[in-house]
């Protein structure tokens, strides 16, 4: 009888463990309208997302994550046929590659981005000096109230709602008595507008593409380093994005063909380099325009010591 009880209890315990391992998150979608170039009136738009989980929130460009099913199908096809496929011709590329983590409850912020194959991050403690005003406005279905602050060399106007009791918002913004529904700078270089939300019952921190890339040497483990080291290394990465890859691929392999393709490994690397350089050149109008960096000695990519 005791053995029978164990057989009954064991699956129940396993189910309980599995259920507890599943994390629920609230996902808020923000349409971002922005001017990528300082000297141009052209406006680009991209969908971003703020995932609010139990112990943190994560803000990111949602372009790649939105295409998870397309990427999964393409990867599975490549695995089945053993033939390489250039996914850059199939999927839309993001406008921004960084993520912003806010760690609850003290709201330590982590700016996270990939430098070559590694995921680096630096931490910040940002205290916004919000001025809450009496102005109120209905934005979509939300009753909102106005607030202003100075940040990153820009003056920002936010509209928040106490209907959603999260003191969070897009990018690095937080600290109002409710979720930020809309926020934009005075010159409308950057403007976020809440456009939808959903509950993610089995939430995962990383997308399918990010998890799949770990099989090919792309780490998802954040390496915390000093902000100045991060920025110097990122500048080096922008100047020569394939530097680390060239050191890892023997010269005699560059003329070899990609599996199931007429493209050589060397040509594939050149294509990736062009895509990255085009990505970096696509904007010269940062969200925080007061960032000033004395580059000094540039750190070698992927070899920054913590």
Short structural description:
This protein has 306 residues and is α+β, with helices and mostly antiparallel strands. Helices cover 25% and strands 32% of the residues. It has one domain.
What would the keywords be for this entry?
single chain; 306 residues; alpha+beta; 12 strands; globular
* Averaged pLDDT: 86
- The count of strands amounts to 12
Q: Give the amount of beta strand, in percent.
A: 25-35%
Rg on CA atoms, Å: 22 Å
Please give the share of residues in helix.
10-25%
Strands of the biggest beta sheet: in what spatial order?
Answer: 7-8-9-10-11-1-2-3-4-5-6-12
Oligomer: single chain
Q: Unreliable stretches, pLDDT < 50, 5 or more residues?
A: 1-20, 292-306
Shape call: globular
Helix and strand succession? HEEEHEEEEEEEEHEHHH
What count of helical segments does DSSP give?
6
- End-to-end span in angstroms? 56 Å
Return the structural class.
Answer: alpha+beta
How many individual domains?
1
How would a crystallographer describe the biggest sheet? 12 strands, mixed
């Amino acid at each position: 009888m005791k053995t029978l009880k164990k057989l009954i209890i064991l699956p129940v315990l396993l189910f309980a463990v599995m259920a507890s391992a599943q994390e629920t998150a609230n996902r808020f979608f923000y349409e971002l309208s922005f001017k990528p170039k300082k000297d141009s009136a052209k406006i680009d738009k991209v969908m971003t997302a703020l995932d609010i989980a139990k112990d943190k929130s994560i803000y990111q460009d949602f372009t790649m994550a939105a295409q998870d099913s397309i990427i999964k199908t393409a990867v599975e096809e490549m695995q089945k046929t053993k033939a390489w496929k250039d996914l850059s011709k199939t999927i839309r590329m993001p406008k921004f590659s960084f993520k912003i983590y806010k760690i609850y409850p003290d709201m330590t912020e982590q700016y996270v981005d990939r430098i070559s194959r590694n995921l680096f991050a630096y931490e910040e403690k940002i205290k916004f000096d919000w001025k809450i005003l009496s102005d109120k406005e209905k934005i979509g279905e939300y009753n909102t109230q106005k607030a202003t602050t100075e940040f990153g060399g820009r003056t920002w106007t936010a509209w928040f709602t106490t209907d959603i009791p999260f003191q969070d918002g897009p990018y690095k913004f937080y600290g109002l008595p409710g979720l930020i529904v809309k926020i934009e700078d005075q010159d409308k270089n950057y403007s976020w507008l809440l456009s939808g939300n959903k509950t993610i019952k089995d939430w995962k921190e990383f997308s399918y593409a990010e998890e799949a890339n770990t099989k090919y040497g792309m780490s998802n483990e954040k390496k915390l380093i000093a902000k100045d080291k991060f920025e110097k290394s990122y500048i080096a990465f922008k100047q020569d994005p394939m530097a680390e890859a060239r050191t890892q691929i023997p010269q005699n392999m560059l003329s070899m063909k990609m599996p199931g393709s007429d493209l050589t490994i060397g040509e594939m690397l050149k294509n990736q380099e062009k895509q990255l350089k085009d990505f970096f050149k696509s904007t010269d109008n940062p969200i925080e325009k007061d960032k000033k960096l004395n580059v000094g000695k540039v750190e070698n990519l992927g070899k920054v010591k913590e």
